[in-house]
Design a protein that fits this description.
Subcellular location: Cell membrane
Strand content: 5-15%
InterPro entries: LipidA_mod_glycosyltrf_83
Strand order of the largest sheet: 4-3-5-7-6
Distance between the termini: 74 Å
Helix content: 55-70%
Number of strands: 7
Number of domains: 3
Number of helices: 25
Largest sheet: 5 strands, mixed
Membrane topology: Multi-pass membrane protein
Keywords: Cell membrane, Glycosyltransferase, Membrane, Transferase, Transmembrane, Transmembrane helix
GO molecular function: pentosyltransferase activity
Shape: globular
Length: 571
């Protein structure tokens, strides 16, 4: 049965003239050469401007400002505190890469070994930061990158607000933005120094555009182009976004097929599907240069980093079924952390009850069917996204969680708005909204305070101490290797610390895949390895490792013990 055509709202204001386009039922606005505004129209225009900066918009601007200010306060602390509280070792893969590019060494992490083990848009953003800031100090680009990521994360609240507003109400939009901006788990993950905030800005913008601007069932030419461009930007910011993109293209095609009665005419069907093909072509053209460079330089379409992690997981002692279970469990842990970040030992049960409550509220408010229809592309994309990480990648890392948490923020914002708006009078709904915000503010503050002392990655400050030791105590001509190389490589500019797990080094990835990492260590004359004891167990069985030093030297902040080994036994 044909579905009802959906056309997003468009408004024309003073100085513009509405014109009927070729598509029935739609209007477009174009600026007239001469403004035709009477005094009453000017007053109406001013009223429109005042309404545009209405109470919800002022509230949103206030939330954005407070959230950005809070992030800046957290950022401007000594680097060892940032390492303990926020920064992940993987961020320093990007920093070392961007430094090498800005210094003219090429797209390499280890000298002479081209790599594609990164996501290109974030790396491209970092290069000018390093070109300008690195001369002022090794940590200046790190702080600058965190400021940029904070602006990006805060900006993501704008399309999220638009999504909530379009799917339910202005109240839902404000609550969705609030949940995204002040959730402590999202805050800590977004300050890891990695690319996920950039990915989520484009994913959220894509979701907003699809629910608020794209015609149903058939997008216009311009809408198809914009959708393709947003999918490409999301892909370039984090390449797993291709799964969300496939979900978008698939859902758009299903909408058109559902509205089609004549399946016996292939040409007519292809004509109706033309916007989907256009979106795919636009996305493909935009990402093709990166993929071509990757194949020609490294011999791979996909980043070597994901393949390297998969090899390491499969070659470990953990059975495949347990790896799948752990990946699923970690996804559930992200949801738990969204509500009770280090707050309650029984957090998973409570989080499950809250999710059940959200579903009941949405069902009672008859929102589920509407959301399924309006977010069909997100459902299709999720059916690809999560199985990919669970069954193929066999792992979910904290910064992968922002995709899940953005969806959760949208659904929770709508559910809370449904509760707030259950009684029509404003005198009732406004106090309820205030109570909801206060309750979640208290929960977020308690969760953040509970988590902050222990830090997100306490081991990183121990690695920083080890990097300083390498730089000052190990001879420059001695080659150092590590299976966790980011911080060591970045903070030892006079050394080239070999990445042994292959995340940023295709040569070591291939050696790990063949089970020949010990041979590669000897081939590269690696004289020292700095890692926890468990990381070098396989190497230790083939080479002689003599302990040189242990870290941390002082108080252990919870990151465990890292050992610097002298490598011997190479023939």
């Amino acid at each position: 049965m044909p579905t009802r055509s959906y056309t997003p709202r468009r408004r024309c204001h003073c100085g513009t003239t509405p014109r009927i386009t070729a598509s029935p039922g739609t209007k477009a606005c174009f600026a007239s050469r001469r403004p035709r505004c009477s005094s009453s129209e000017r007053r109406a225009m001013m009223q429109f401007v005042r309404r545009s900066i209405s109470r919800p918009h002022r509230l949103l601007i206030g939330l954005l400002a407070v959230s950005l200010g809070m992030r800046l306060v957290l950022i401007f602390q000594p680097i060892e505190i940032l390492l303990h509280k926020f920064l992940a070792d993987d961020a320093f893969y990007y920093y070392a890469l961007a430094r090498n590019i800005s210094h003219g060494h090429g797209v390499v992490f280890n000298q002479g070994v081209p790599t594609n083990g990164f996501h290109p848009l974030y790396a491209a953003l970092l290069v000018p930061i390093f070109e300008v800031g690195y001369s002022f100090g090794v940590n200046v680009p790190v702080y600058a990158s965190l400021i940029v990521l904070s602006v990006v994360t805060v900006s993501t609240a704008v399309p999220l607000y638009g999504i909530g507003d379009e799917l339910h109400s202005t109240t839902a939009g404000v609550l969705t933005a609030f949940l995204w901006l002040f959730n402590p788990y999202i805050l800590f993950v977004s300050l890891s120094g990695l690319e996920s905030p950039l990915q989520m800005l484009f994913i959220a913008t894509l979701i907003w555009y699809l629910v608020a601007r794209v015609n149903r069932p058939i997008p216009t030419h311009r809408q198809a182009v914009v959708v393709g461009a947003l999918v490409a930007l999301a892909f370039m910011s984090r390449m797993s976004s291709v799964l969300a993109g496939i979900g978008v293209f698939g859902a758009l095609a299903l909408r058109i097929l559902e509205d089609t009665d004549d399946f016996g005419n292939p040409m007519n069907l292809l004509t109706r599907l033309r916007p989907v093909f256009k979106s795919g072509v636009v996305a493909s053209v935009l990402v093709a240069p990166w993929l071509l460079w990757s194949v020609l330089t490294v011999g791979r379409l996909t980043p070597v980093s994901g393949a390297a992690l998969r090899v390491i997981r499969l070659e470990g002692s953990t059975p495949y079924s347990i790896l799948v279970w752990e990946a699923m469990r970690d996804t559930g842990r992200f949801v738990w952390n969204y509500f009770f970040y280090d707050l309650f030992a029984f957090g998973p049960l409570v989080a499950l009850l809250i999710l059940g409550g959200i579903l009941l509220v949405l069902v009672r408010g008859e929102q589920v069917r509407t959301l399924v229809v309006r977010l069909d592309f997100l459902i299709v994309g999720s059916l690809l996204y999560y199985p990919f990480y669970w069954f193929y990648e066999l792992g979910m890392r904290p910064w992968y969680s922002l995709f899940t948490l953005s969806i959760l923020s949208i659904l929770l914002g709508i559910a809370l708005a449904e509760l707030v708006n259950v009684s029509p009078p404003k005198s009732v709904s406004i106090p309820r909204a205030a109570v909801v915000v206060l309750l979640f503010s208290g929960l977020f503050v308690a969760s953040g305070v509970a988590h902050y002392p222990g830090g997100t990655y306490p081991q990183e400050v121990t690695k920083w101490e080890g990097a300083n030791y390498i730089e000052n105590e190990i001879p420059r001509e001695a080659t150092v290797g590590s299976f966790n190389t980011g911080i060591y490589q970045y903070y030892t500019p006079n050394h080239d610390v070999i990445n042994l797990d292959g995340v940023m080094n295709p040569a070591t990835y291939r050696a790990n895949e063949r089970g020949e990492i010990s041979d590669y260590i000897c081939e590269r004359n690696v004289a020292y390895i700095l890692d926890p004891q468990g990381y070098v167990r396989d190497v230790e069985s083939e080479l002689t490792l003599t302990e040189v030093s242990r870290f941390p030297k002082g108080t252990d902040r919870g990151g465990g013990t890292y050992i610097l080994y002298r490598v011997q036994g190479c023939n």
